[in-house]
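Milestone M4 deliverable, item 7.
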Amino acid sequence: MRLTIKVLILLIVMLSITANAQKKDVTISEKAAIIVFPSKEKIAQLKKESASEDEYSSIIENGIFYLDNAKIFLKNKGIKLIKIYSSDVLKFKNKTTTKNFDIKNLSWEIIFYMPNKSPKLVDITNVENEFQDYFLTVKTKKL
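Output delivered:
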């Protein structure tokens, strides 16, 4: 049963990556959570670096599990979700500047962004606290 689930998960991951054959430029200028899926090349690298098929499957299962939980939480909080791949070019734009954000080595990650605030790569195993710290904490200046 567990092997069947692993095979199904691997198939879904590979199909979603195959659908993303072209690299694209993505510019974010609004409050959002950017979900970064691994590119086809990153998946191949993970498979090559894994000690066994079980380790490779566990990496994928954990990534999907934590991302799914994070997506549910963020949707319930009304945060816009933007899905991209680590082969894409990610840029963040505020009123005066546009900055690149390197994502080529990311797999199953989330980046929080609000205009006029630096983007933050978050711990997807602790997304509720990350959400609180990033979106709900108000920074005050000392007098």
